Amino acid sequence: MTQALLLVDVQNDFSPSGALPVVDGDQIVPVINRLIPHFKHIVATKDWHPAGHSSFASSNQQNVGEVIVLDGIPQIMWPDHCVQDSEGAEFISGLNVEAITKVIYKGTNPKIDSYSGFFDNQRLQATGLADYLHSKGIKELAIVGLATDYCVKFTALDAVSLGFKTTVVQDACRGVEMVQGDVESAWKQMKQVGCKLIQSEDITG
Ligand code: VGL
Ligand code: ZN
């Protein structure tokens, strides 16, 4: 069965010096680079927000970390991050970007956030990721990236719901942990729906 490596939001703004810092977020880069040669298809998502995105605290006169209701669903207020064409939206330096065979952009709708690489948070629009994977005959995914408790989690849950055989490589992910325990509970949820949780060494040997 054809398996793809799916890189979720390995972008500067999620590195420790970025706008929405993830502790040790940059530490996954060498791990991902070691995984890459084991896959034919390397697909990456990019969080790709227009300036003034509705998930930004600054767009709503809110404080970062506050939760507001946007179009009927709870929305965490984030710092401005991953603005289209900004340095913060670039892949973290050192990542083997030449190996990436496809980039999928998400969070582009100014009014709706998108944690999953497959759909926006309202599930109104698909990003094209599922269609792309189907077009290549890819039925299995190994997921890595940032952040474990947001985009990695929601991407993995959607992957399972769409019928992909889904593995998540734990040491190639890091989380935001806005609330203590979020990362642990994210792993639990992924496991519960049927994601296989592994370590990179299980692939690289
Ligand atoms: C993410 C919060 C906001 C992520 C993206 O990539 O996990 N988290 N936007
Ligand atoms: Zn975002």
Automatic annotation (TrEMBL):
<keyword id="KW-0479">Metal-binding</keyword>
<keyword id="KW-0662">Pyridine nucleotide biosynthesis</keyword>
<feature type="domain" description="Isochorismatase-like">
    <location>
        <begin position="4"/>
        <end position="202"/>
    </location>
</feature>
<dbReference type="InterPro" id="IPR000868">
    <property type="entry name" value="Isochorismatase-like_dom"/>
</dbReference>
<comment type="pathway">
    <text>Cofactor biosynthesis; nicotinate biosynthesis; nicotinate from nicotinamide: step 1/1.</text>
</comment>
<dbReference type="InterPro" id="IPR036380">
    <property type="entry name" value="Isochorismatase-like_sf"/>
</dbReference>
<dbReference type="GO" id="GO:0008936">
    <property type="term" value="F:nicotinamidase activity"/>
</dbReference>
<dbReference type="Pfam" id="PF00857">
    <property type="entry name" value="Isochorismatase"/>
</dbReference>
<comment type="similarity">
    <text>Belongs to the isochorismatase family.</text>
</comment>
<dbReference type="InterPro" id="IPR052347">
    <property type="entry name" value="Isochorismatase_Nicotinamidase"/>
</dbReference>
<protein>
    <recommendedName>
        <fullName>nicotinamidase</fullName>
        <ecNumber>3.5.1.19</ecNumber>
    </recommendedName>
</protein>
<keyword id="KW-0378">Hydrolase</keyword>
